[in-house]
Design goal:
By secondary structure, the protein is an alpha/beta fold. The protein is 45% helix and 11% strand.
Length: 304
C-alpha cells in the first residue's frame, strides 16, 4: 500500500504485536503465518482502495486466544456456576462449611457442552474438576439420544443439576434446540446455560428460553455489544470502517461460495470474532470464506 496514512501505519504496528501475542496460535492456520495469510487476503482485490478498507476493518477484529478462553472457562465455573449453585440450592453463604457444601453440589452436577465446539475436557482441567464418565454434547444428543436412557443415567449417577457450556453463541440457533430438548427431557433438573461469549441475538434467545422453561437459567460470561457488529444496513452511529466495508462486501459476495447469499454471516450476524480454535460462521464471510476465488484471513473448519 503506497502512501500509507498514519492510521494505517498505527494499525500495522498493532497487528504486528497481535500476531506475536495471539494470531499465530490460530489452530486452522497453524502452519501458515498471519503475515502470509494477511498478504493473500488483501490480494483478493487488486484495488488498493479496497485493500485499505479491508485492512482498516481489522482494527475492529475481536480475536480470543487460548489464555482468554481459559480465563472465561474459569469464570464460567467460579463465578457463574458456583453462584448459581448457591442460589438454586439455597446454600447459606454465611455457613462455615460453605466450601464443603459447594463441593458436594459440584459432585452432583453434570457438566456438558452444548455442541462439539466446546472442549469439555479443557473446561474440566482448567477448573480442576473430575466430572462424570460421559460428557456428550447435547446437540448430538438431541439428534440421536434416547430420552429414557438419559433420564436413567441421571438417576444412576445421582445427578441433580446440569450445566451446559458453549464457547461461542452467535444467533442462538444451534443453542436453542438442544437446550429446549434438555429442559423437556429433564424437567425436574435445574439447568444452567453458560456461553463463554455471546452475541446480542444469542442473548435474546437465551433469555427467552429461560423465561419459557422454568428449570433453565441463562448466564453468559461475556456478552458482546451490538455496536461491535457490521449490519447489512447503515447504523446512525458506527465506525467508518463499517461504512466503508459494506460496499466491498457487495462487490465480493459472489466469490464467497456458500455465503454468497449470506454475506454478513450465518443469520446475518455480522460478527468480527475469531477464536483461536476456529472462526465462527457468524463472522463476516470475507474474513473466513475459502473458495477457488477467495483466500481467507482466518480459514474456517466447517462441519459440512
Amino acid at each position: 500500500m503506497s502512501g500509507d496514512s498514519d492510521d494505517l501505519i498505527a494499525l500495522r504496528d498493532q497487528l504486528a504485536w497481535l500476531q506475536a501475542e495471539l494470531f499465530d496460535e490460530y489452530e486452522p492456520n497453524r502452519y501458515e503465518s498471519f503475515d502470509d495469510c494477511l498478504a493473500k487476503w488483501l490480494m483478493n482485490s487488486p484495488d488498493e482502495d479496497v485493500q485499505k478498507k479491508m485492512f482498516r476493518l481489522l482494527g475492529h477484529l475481536f480475536f480470543v486466544g487460548k489464555k482468554q478462553i481459559d480465563a472465561l472457562q474459569r469464570s464460567a465455573y467460579s463465578d457463574k456456576t458456583v453462584r448459581w449453585l448457591v442460589d438454586v440450592l439455597g446454600l447459606d453463604i454465611a455457613s462455615a462449611n460453605l466450601n464443603g457444601l459447594i463441593s458436594q453440589a459440584v459432585q452432583s452436577t453434570w457438566f456438558c457442552p452444548i455442541t462439539d465446539s466446546l472442549r469439555i475436557n479443557g473446561f474440566l482441567k482448567v477448573n480442576g474438576l473430575n466430572g462424570h464418565d460421559h460428557r456428550p454434547d447435547w446437540r448430538s444428543l438431541e439428534q440421536f439420544g434416547d430420552q429414557d436412557k438419559l433420564r436413567q443415567y441421571v438417576v444412576d449417577e445421582d445427578i441433580e443439576q446440569l450445566v451446559l457450556i458453549e464457547d461461542f453463541v452467535g444467533s442462538g440457533a444451534q443453542m436453542e434446540g438442544p437446550v429446549r430438548w434438555a429442559a423437556q427431557t429433564l424437567p425436574n433438573v435445574p439447568i444452567l446455560v453458560v456461553p463463554l461469549i455471546c452475541c446480542p441475538d444469542g442473548v435474546t434467545i437465551g433469555q427467552t428460553i429461560a423465561q419459557q422453561c422454568a428449570n433453565v437459567s441463562f448466564s453468559p460470561c461475556l456478552s458482546l455489544r451490538p455496536e461491535l457488529f457490521v449490519s447489512s444496513t447503515a447504523q446512525p452511529v458506527e465506525p467508518s470502517a463499517f461504512t466503508q466495508i459494506r460496499p466491498v462486501i457487495q462487490i465480493v459476495r459472489n466469490r464467497l461460495g456458500v455465503f454468497e447469499y449470506h454475506p454478513y454471516g450465518f443469520e446475518g450476524t455480522g460478527a468480527l470474532v475469531t477464536l483461536y480454535s476456529n472462526c465462527p460462521d457468524n463472522t463476516l464471510p470475507l474474513i473466513h470464506s475459502q473458495t477457488n476465488t477467495w483466500k481467507p484471513l482466518f480459514s474456517r473448519i466447517r462441519r459440512s
